[in-house]
Amino acid sequence: METRTLQFNGLNYRRFSEPFSLEKLFIENLSDMSGTGFDGKPFYPMLEDFSDVGMDHIRPSDITRYVMKLKNSARLPPPPEDSYISCVAGDLVSFGKLRMYGVYSDIFQLRNESDFHVADTLQEATSWLADRKGMTSDVTIEAVEYFRRAA
Prior knowledge:
By secondary structure, this protein is α/β, with parallel strands linked by helices. 45% of the residues lie in helices and 17% in strands. It has a five-stranded mixed sheet. Helix 1 (22-34) packs parallel to helix 2, helix 2 (60-72) crosses helix 3 and helix 4 (122-133) crosses helix 5. It is globular and about 40 Å long. The chain starts with a strand and ends with a helix. The relative contact order is 0.18.
């Protein structure tokens, strides 16, 4: 799994590619959440772009194990107050699996479901995240264009 990570005006962007696995995602998330981002803070808020990734091979039990593994990781600090994550799903199956992750994360007290959003488009995902950060619509448009060109 290859990942491209960028930052624009305080928004962190990550685009995933095939082959995709929850194990590789776990290693990346653990590294991100226990390290620091571009501005010396954890990688939040984060826009995760799964539009090039298919998730039909992932079962609900895989998501449960993934969430529990993240929760039980000793090296993982609790998420900061503004740990918003917005995801772009590439298809309907991926949309459902990402929503399932958001619900399970809340159930297992890993993160609040209200801090997690799944969208069909990069525009919608970026707008949701920018709104949480109090950014203007002009900055949001710039961010979408930057991420679209750079990815």
